[in-house]
Amino acid sequence: MHPDVAKLVEAGRIPKSVGERLSQLAPGNFCIHKSFGAGKVTDWDLPGKKVTIDFEKSMGQVMELQFAFQKTEWIAGEDFRARKIEQIEELRALSKQDPVELIVHLLHSHGGSMTGEALEKELCGTVIPEASFKKWWDATKKSLRESRRAVIPSKRTEPIVLRGGDRTPAEALVADFEAARDIKGMIRGLEAIAADIGAFENDTEALKRLLQDIDDGAKKASRVLLGQALQLVAARDEVIGSSKALELDPKAVRLASLIANVDASKLAEDVAALPSTRQRAVFEAFPEAYGDVWVEKIVQVFDCAGARGVTEIARILLDRGGMPALAAHLRSALARRALGPDALIWVCRERKHPAASVFSPDVGASILNLLENDHLADGPRKTSRLQTLLNEDKNLLGDLVSIMDINESRNFARRLLDCPVFGELEKKSLMARIIKIRPETAELVSGEGTKKREELLLVSWDSLERKKAELDDLVRNKIPQNRNDVKIARSYGDLRENFEYKSAKDLEKYLAHRQSALEKEIHNARGTDFKGSDASSVNIGTVVTLSDATSTPIVMCVLGAWDSAPDLQHVSYLSDVGKALLGRVPGDTVQIRDTVTEVMQTLTIQSIAPFNP
């Protein structure tokens, strides 16, 4: 206890516990502050209840004693953070002479554990020059792994943990695994073992003890956390594959047994979150899991396996002669406009080979369908990567329209110009690529086509009210809530690795875009009840009966721009079906896609009647 403080305690003016804490703030001592960093106490004024501290980020900071009590924490003089204040040159020299010892000292000062992010903040720009930090840290991580004095995770957001005691490196790795409290921890432990498998060259017994724990953990996790169970077993297989002395027990749980009875959609959802190497391991287990029907099963998960998954599945099918089945599936899904964005991106990227046989005009229609539907959906966009591909792949649109006939290319270009997803400059850029291959489409952007496309929209009163209600909810609730979410997420720190902040900002962009689109649509809309529609030909507000002479007649109502309802056979006059029907009279034959199956049908108009709301 500081002599000046001891007198106050002896006089009964302050309790002993307060005196001990106060002594930690005596001149010459070190402390840490959440905002100012580490600091050294340079002076104090006990009667005036003041203390002066030279912090890293604020020199000569005068603080109230009570505030310093609450907001600072004492650190020892040998603490890394204290040494940064008075011995920075020694630390810089140590970073060059023995970087492993520097990191060990730093970890000791932080309780034996800190994330890569926190480590970078502590060293970069102070001990290590910012320009050379990455190169230095990459070399130091390699040396740390070789020394086996710390567990180095693969992600910078996970903790680097100092190993202690007299254990061998192998025993330390096994202890890290056995200390794991959940499946994620076990996976991290196995990854560390796989990275340091050389430590077990003369100690394989320690590894063998783990296999039963892994087996039990995988069986338990598979009931509720299938994705983690798959990753654990895949990580175990990686360790066994890298060790010549280990063999898997014939009764041990395998990837094939975990996936054999799982629903395809559930399996795809769990596998999509795995790293690509482990996804491939799961997909390679399909033949063992499903036998003769493995190709059929793996094709079922193709659409929803995520960006990495579709690539891995395609590689496996290509290697094992399963591409005809995948091609048949893709052609069917494209015809039904049912292919997801990740699968569609793969088809576009591999259009020369191996997706050449499925790259058809349906691909263009599917792209625009996905973009438009995602634009109208309530939530963050799911097709950003698809739109980026369309913009960045300079040959994609040209390759698409080159396989279309004249009418198909004109219809595709017209739909692209009408697509609300693209800005005006973006449309001009995309159309230039189409016109280069199909000059006949130039008329769409010349003459009246160069004027701003602000056509009136005929809509039902109900759909207009729904749009207004959506806009009102957006302005009153969702946008203010998002602004608050952005503020909260920003307070979490480092924006480079702040997932919540990025998500909130993505949603902010979507909401602003959606507000603009709704305001424009409502401005251009004109409500109607469809009464008094001319039924001499198909018009907006008419009921059309069609037949192909082999099945039950189909009755469709051609209604407003926002009135599509496939279940009720209501179609918008702006839809492909609506455009095909408008102006037709009884006896005319039309080709339209079924609103449910998306299959092309040739139908004859039997009768037309006014729509009765």
What does this entry look like structurally?
The protein is α+β, with helices and mostly antiparallel strands and 613 residues long. Among the domains are: 3-77, SH3 type barrels (Roll); 322-450; 457-528, Transcription elongation factor, GreA/GreB, N-terminal domain (Helix Hairpins, Orthogonal Bundle), CATH 1.10.287; 542-610, Transcription elongation factor, GreA/GreB, C-terminal domain (Chitinase A, domain 3). The chain has 28 helices and 15 strands. The protein has a 5-stranded antiparallel sheet, sandwiched between helices. It has a 5-stranded mixed sheet with strand order 13-12-11-15-14. It has a 3-stranded antiparallel sheet with strand order 6-8-7. The radius of gyration is 34 Å and the shape is globular. The N and C termini lie far apart (89 Å). Residues 447-453 have low confidence and may be disordered.
Structure characteristics:
about 625 residues; five-stranded antiparallel beta sheet; globular; SH3 type barrels; 15 strands; Helix Hairpins; 28 helices; alpha+beta
Protein topology:
Blueprint: H1 3-10, H2 16-23, E1 30-33, E2 37-45, E3 50-55, E4 61-64, H3 65-71, E5 72-75, H4 80-86, H5 88-97, H6 99-109, E6 113-115, H7 116-123, H8 133-147, E7 150-151, E8 159-162, H9 169-178, H10 183-195, H11 204-221, H12 226-242, H13 255-259, H14 264-271, H15 276-284, H16 286-290, H17 294-300, H18 306-319, H19 323-335, H20 341-349, H21 361-376, H22 384-392, H23 396-402, H24 406-418, H25 424-437, E9 457-460, H26 461-490, H27 499-524, E10 525-528, E11 542-547, E12 554-559, E13 570-572, H28 576-581, E14 589-593, E15 600-610
Parallel strand pairs: 9-10, 12-13
Antiparallel strand pairs: 1-2, 1-5, 2-3, 3-4, 6-8, 7-8, 11-12, 11-15, 14-15
